[in-house]
Design brief:
two-stranded antiparallel sheet, Rossmann fold, 139 residues, alpha/beta, globular, five-stranded parallel sheet
Length: 139
């Protein structure tokens, strides 16, 4: 499948309200930390997902160990994991009620994960960053 066009990505970013960030890091030097903070600043509800920091608080939320532990429905799962580590994340994600989008960060793409997500009716964005796309497409 091809990458969604700018209109589709803009629509995703304008309609998504709640985002689970898989691979979130408490380290401010890490991209996952900065993107999550950017999304929060832009009005999204961001649920950090990281088993090593589960139970701590970040971005006004309790960090959860995995997608099965999310306290609320999310519209989008934003993945900060190596490409080869994405399929198990998507396997968990497709079980979530209300999920609309699987987003894989810059440098991350996985055909198997994409196919699984699309088979479950989800939109998929690969190798892009919402912290770049929001200013570019929305302002």
């Amino acid at each position: 499948m091809t990458q969604p066009d700018d209109t589709t990505i803009r629509t995703i970013l304008e309609t998504v309200r709640t985002v689970a960030v898989v691979g979130w890091s408490p380290n401010p030097a890490r991209p996952s930390h900065n993107v999550a903070a950017f999304l929060k600043q832009r009005g999204y509800r961001v649920i950090p997902v990281n088993p090593g920091h589960a139970g701590t608080e970040a971005l006004g939320e309790v960090v959860v160990p995995d997608l099965a532990s999310l306290p609320v429905q999310v519209d989008m799962v934003d993945i900060f994991r190596k490409s080869e580590d994405v399929p198990p994340v998507v396997e968990q994600a497709v079980k979530l009620d209300g999920l609309k989008v699987i987003w894989m960060q810059l440098g991350i793409a996985n055909a198997q994960a994409r196919a699984l997500a699309e088979d479950h009716g989800l939109q998929v964005v690969e190798n892009r960053c919402p912290a770049i796309e929001i200013p570019r497409l929305i302002g």
